[in-house]
Amino acid sequence: MSINSIVDWITRARWVVDGKFYTSSGVSAGMDMSLGFINDRLGKEIADETANAIEYV
Asked: How deeply is 30 buried, as exposed, middle or buried, from its count of CB atoms within 10 A (0-12, 13-18, 19+)?
């Protein structure tokens, strides 16, 4: 799946975190990943507030 042999492709992951890098498998997964990023950096309360503000169900 990768043109670079050092990439560790994770087939069923919606998103992965490798140190400071976050990457998702698509647009919908990107929304989940973004909220996961906010949760990791700013905490669950801010992530929940953000999800509510953008009407993420």
From this structure: middle
